[in-house]
């Protein structure tokens, strides 16, 4: 039996009374989410002191369940060697870590996967450029984008927004950005520019 199978079998044997409601950062109960800690045979051969924390949660609308997710609940688990924390606190800490992992993934997709230059000083400049790009990618969805576009990752942003063909025209002392009307995401770009123009000038 594989580790995954052992964990899955252990999950099916967890009684309803063993599940504790998950919590939000403000201490309120997280709606539709519960946590528990697995022990016993499924941890045989694991390092001593390692804890296996399990979360079950009602999936958001449209989410795809796996056939191993029982009762329509999305199951996830993680291991930790933190011994003194309650399982609700450990699960909250792990969940709050998710945005950091998203930033790391975005950094890899923005140029941090490889250092392209030979000299350390040159690569340091490259890292600074990547950091500037990441800052722009972090602020742009908050300030300029709405709806599902806020969730787009770097590759999708490059395809739909950053690589859009356009023409910059100067006329009557004005600069006009002409976008192709047939481009499916032209309205996303124009709406984003309009939102940026309405922001207060910090100067």
UniProtKB/TrEMBL annotation:
InterPro entries: Tnp_DDE_dom. It holds the Pfam family DDE_Tnp_1_4. The lineage of its organism: Bacteria, Bacillati, Actinomycetota, Actinomycetes, Kitasatosporales. Residues 2-200 form the Transposase DDE domain. This is Transposase DDE domain group 1.
């Amino acid at each position: 039996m594989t580790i995954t199978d052992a964990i899955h079998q252990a999950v099916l044997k967890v009684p309803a009374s063993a599940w504790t409601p998950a919590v939000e950062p403000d201490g309120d109960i997280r709606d539709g989410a519960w946590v528990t800690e697995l022990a016993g045979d499924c941890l045989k051969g694991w390092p001593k002191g390692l804890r296996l924390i399990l979360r079950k949660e009602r999936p958001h609308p449209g989410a795809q369940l796996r056939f191993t997710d029982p009762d329509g609940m999305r199951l996830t688990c993680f291991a930790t060697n933190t011994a003194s924390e309650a399982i609700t606190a450990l699960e909250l800490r792990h969940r709050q870590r998710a945005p950091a992992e998203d930033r790391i993934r975005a950094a890899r997709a923005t140029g941090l996967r490889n250092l392209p230059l030979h000299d350390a000083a040159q690569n340091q400049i490259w890292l600074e450029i990547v950091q500037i790009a990441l800052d722009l990618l972090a602020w742009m969805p908050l300030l300029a984008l709405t709806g599902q576009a806020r969730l787009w990752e770097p590759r999708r942003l490059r395809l739909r927004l950053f690589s859009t063909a356009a023409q910059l025209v100067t006329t009557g002392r004005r600069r006009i950005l002409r976008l192709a009307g047939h481009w499916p995401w032209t309205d996303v770009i124009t709406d984003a520019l309009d939102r940026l123009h309405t922001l207060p000038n910090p100067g």
